[in-house]
C-alpha cells in the first residue's frame, strides 16, 4: 500500500528540517525518486535553506560602532 501525503510539499520541508519519522523519510524519498516536480521543489528548498542558514542575524560591527558613537556623543537637551 502506498501512502499518499495530504501536503506533499509540507512533508518535503519537514524532511529538510529532519522533522519526519523514519517511515515518513522512506515514503518521501520514494516519492522524490518518481516525481520530478517534487524533486525540483526539494532541490529549490534545499538551496533556499542553505542560503537562510548563512544569514547573519546579529548586528554588524559597523552598526554597533554607530550606536556606540551616538551614545558617546549624545548630549541631552536641557
UniProtKB/TrEMBL annotation:
UniProt superkingdom: Bacteria
Q: What is the protein name for this chain?
A: Uncharacterized protein
Q: Which organism is it from?
A: Emticicia soli
Amino acid at each position: 500500500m502506498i501512502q499518499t501525503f495530504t501536503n506533499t510539499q509540507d512533508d518535503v520541508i519537514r524532511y529538510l528540517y529532519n522533522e519526519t519519522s523514519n517511515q515518513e523519510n522512506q515514503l518521501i524519498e520514494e516519492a522524490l525518486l518518481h516525481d520530478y516536480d517534487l524533486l525540483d521543489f526539494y532541490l529549490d528548498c534545499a538551496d533556499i535553506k542553505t542560503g537562510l542558514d548563512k544569514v547573519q542575524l546579529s548586528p554588524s560591527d559597523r552598526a554597533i560602532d554607530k550606536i556606540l558613537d551616538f551614545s558617546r556623543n549624545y548630549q541631552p537637551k536641557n
